[in-house]
Amino acid sequence: DAGVIQSPRHEVTEMGQEVTLRCKPISGHDYLFWYRQTMMRGLELLIYFNNNVPIDDSGMPEDRFSAKMPNASFSTLKIQPSEPRDSAVYFCASGTRDRGLNEQFFGPGTRLTVL
Amino acid sequence: ELKVEQNPLFLSMQEGKNYTIYCNYSTTSDRLYWYRQDPGKSLESLFVLLSNGAVKQEGRLMASLDTKARLSTLHITAAVHDLSATYFCAVDANFGNEKLTFGTGTRLTIIP
Questions:
Q1: For residue B52, what pLDDT is reported?
Q2: Residues A101, B50: C-beta atoms closer than 8 Å
């Protein structure tokens, strides 16, 4: 398996622009997680899905952020409008609860810079 | 709210030395995960600890879990430079959800 795939790997945009981050989870995984990592705040869970349904979006910072999972193999995280404080590395992770495990496998991340 | 604390936050050590990273958490759990992150890279799963007294070893790294003390340790034996990375512990809180709560990370630097 190719692992979790994210695109783009790097994104530089200007304040006010819309940004869309994409994720393809590992085939067969039924959980998908979006995280944000910054030096100041560490690793934060933004939202997660189970079987394409959003379960907990309490970590989404504000209405400018939205996430969708239209099918089992694709998810997007959108920021509209973007602000400089959104600059961070965004990770997507996938996993499954087989055998009671909750091991999550992380993608390579998208480094977002908002100017 | 589950809290996960790691210490130290930063650790600089010489090659060949031994050291331990500690992960304390605030609620009952018998499932704990250790991850490694190299600079500019993603998080890589290292160990999965699923019960009290669980011990896992891989090369110079050994992880253990004491659920009664709510403590996990990551022990480094005879450190080598390529172990330099940030190490995270993450706790599964058994709340019936699938969240992992991550510690703040320990940035380990091995000095030749």
A1: 84
A2: yes
Nearest CA in chain B to A88: B40
- CA–CA separation, B76 and B74 (whole Å): 7
Place of tokens 């992992």: B100
**Burial class (CB within 10 angstroms; exposed 0-12, middle 13-18, buried 19+) of A50:** middle
Mean pLDDT confidence for A8-27? 97
Q: Which of A43, A105, A109 sits opposite B102 (nearest CB)?
A: A43
Residue range B55-67, pLDDT digits in tens: 999 999 999 999 9
Q: Which of B83, B102, B87, B106 is nearest to B8 (CA)?
A: B106
Which residues, 6+ apart, have CB-to-CB distance to B5 below 8 Å? Answer: B23, B24, B25, B103, B104
B3, burial (CB in 10 Å: exposed 0-12, middle 13-18, buried 19+) = exposed
Contact B16, B68 (CB under 8 A): no
Q: Which of B1, B35, B42, B86 to substitute to test the interface with A, most A CBs within 10 Å? A: B42
Residue B46 has pLDDT above 70, yes or no: yes
Q: What is the CA radius of gyration of chain A?
A: 14
Residue B65 structure tokens: 């879990």
